[in-house]
Write a structure and sequence with these properties.
Blueprint (H helix, E strand, L loop, with lengths): L32 H32 L12 H21 L6 H29 L8 H32 L28
Helix pairs in contact: 1-2, 1-4, 2-3, 3-4
């Protein structure tokens, strides 16, 4: 064991420093599979919410349906959009499960499905306003529901873009640095210690 000091009053040399620990991989940026998973969870929640809103719209359309009234929204319309929303959810799940670097086919399919959903809802909202006109007194639940669905799908658009961006960023991340080779491993020189140095 090294003495705390020499008898001539000169402090003893400090003990050799321990080897520096292996460098850890850098913390992951937001563009990671974990962030993409969070985006997917939020998207699936939004699409489930849109399906619930569409179910409310279906109930409203059934209650007010009159065979004698022209230009009504088809009763099957909300259920068709529910099926489209569920298909989009399945596409987004497959897109995320494919790993970093989303395939162009899945990404394009998701974008096309969402665009079709938004176009159908926007067209239905225009038709509804045309049916009711500005003279309709009071609150129209069908118009309000369609506006709510449009709002939900706008949020889906933002989150879907974020998901695709995070997947693309994950594909560009460098591979984590491998741990340092242990001292004494074949092919690597051993670290020199104070005992290996020749006395001065």
């Amino acid at each position: 064991m090294a003495a705390a000091g020499r008898s001539d009053g000169i402090p003893a040399s400090p003990p050799p420093r321990a080897a520096a620990p292996a460098r850890q991989p850098p913390a992951r940026s937001p563009g990671t599979p974990a962030a993409a998973g969070q985006d997917l969870d939020a998207l699936l929640g939004d699409l489930a919410g849109a399906c619930g809103q569409l179910e409310e719209l279906a109930t409203t359309l059934r209650r007010e349906h009159n065979p004698q009234t022209p230009r009504q929204l088809p009763l099957a319309f909300p259920h068709r959009l529910q099926a489209a929303a569920r298909q989009l959810a399945a596409t987004l799940t497959a897109l995320t499960g494919a790993g970093p670097g989303p395939g162009p086919d899945l990404a394009s399919s998701a974008a096309a499905q969402l665009a079709a959903l938004q176009a159908d809802v926007a067209a239905a909202a225009r038709d509804r306003r045309g049916q009711r006109g500005n003279s309709t007194p009071g609150h129209d639940p069908g118009t309000a529901l369609l506006a709510g669905i449009e709002h939900t799908l706008n949020r889906v658009t933002t989150r879907q873009q974020s998901l695709i961006s995070h997947l693309a960023d994950s594909a560009e991340e460098p591979a984590p640095a491998s741990a340092s080779t242990p001292a004494g491993a074949p092919g690597e020189p051993t670290a020199r210690t104070a005992h290996d140095e020749s006395p001065r």
